[in-house]
Write a structure and sequence with these properties.
Elements: E1 8-13, E2 16-21, E3 23-29, E4 36-43, E5 45-53, E6 56-62, E7 71-73, E8 86-93, H1 102-110, H2 114-155, H3 159-163, H4 185-194, H5 196-208
GO biological process, one term: protein localization to membrane
Protein name: Transmembrane 9 superfamily member
Transmembrane segments: 120-144, 186-208
Length: 209
């Protein structure tokens, strides 16, 4: 299952990450009727190429070339099967890579799709920004349609006549009630501070439920 799902294992060499697949899957003609059969192979050999600059490890890689002697057929896995692992190390001097930039260069080499993920991230930001502008424009359009008639009427009335207008309809009925203090303010503040609204809500839920 791990090979089918392309699972990777990760190693760290001097704090530099290396990721490689567990194994490979191949179709081979091994049946008598000539049909291909899927075979699973486990990689049991790693060839490390370690780059150094002075006394610091600045690069770590594993060769991707796989030979048949470096693969173990695990298609017919048996319990208790023992697999021997081996590795080799080659050292290479890399004076152009500093220890400070080693991790950044290593991450770029191990994540070839990083730039693509960044493009997708910017695309999501642009989509969110456009959606916000669309919602804001729709909200402003609704507000303008609601108050346009009232504003046009007020602009045609002189100031002295505007003060004498007593009839108010629509949204203007609420403008004076926004900051109107309630009756029995002390009792109201005490009840809200003590959580009376929460207690009443719980009682209603119990009764209704």
């Amino acid at each position: 299952d791990a090979i089918d799902a392309n699972y990777m294992f990760e190693l760290f060499v001097g704090e530099l990450p290396i990721d490689r697949p567990f194994g490979v899957k191949s179709s081979m003609d091994v049946s008598a009727d000539g049909t291909d059969q899927e075979r699973y192979f486990l990689v049991n050999y790693l060839d490390f190429i370690i780059g150094y600059n002075g006394g610091d490890v600045v690069s770590a890689n594993v060769t991707r070339e796989l030979n048949l002697e470096h693969l173990v057929d695990i298609t017919e896995w048996k319990e208790g099967m023992v697999i021997q692992y081996s590795y080799s190390v080659h050292w290479a001097e890399l004076p152009h890579i500093s220890a400070r930039d080693a991790l950044e260069i290593q991450l770029k080499s191990t994540m070839p799709h990083g730039h693509q993920n960044m493009d997708i991230h910017w695309l999501a930001i642009i989509n969110s920004f456009v959606l916000m502008l669309l919602i804001l424009s729709l909200f402003l359009l609704i507000i303008i349609r609601v108050v346009r008639s009232d504003l046009s009427r007020y602009l045609q009335i002189p100031d002295e006549e505007l003060n004498a207008v007593e009839e108010e309809t629509g949204w203007k009925l609420l403008h004076a009630d926004v900051f109107r203090p309630p009756k029995h303010r002390l009792f109201f503040c005490s009840a809200v501070g003590a959580g009376a609204q929460l207690a009443s809500m719980m009682m209603m839920v119990v009764v209704v439920g």
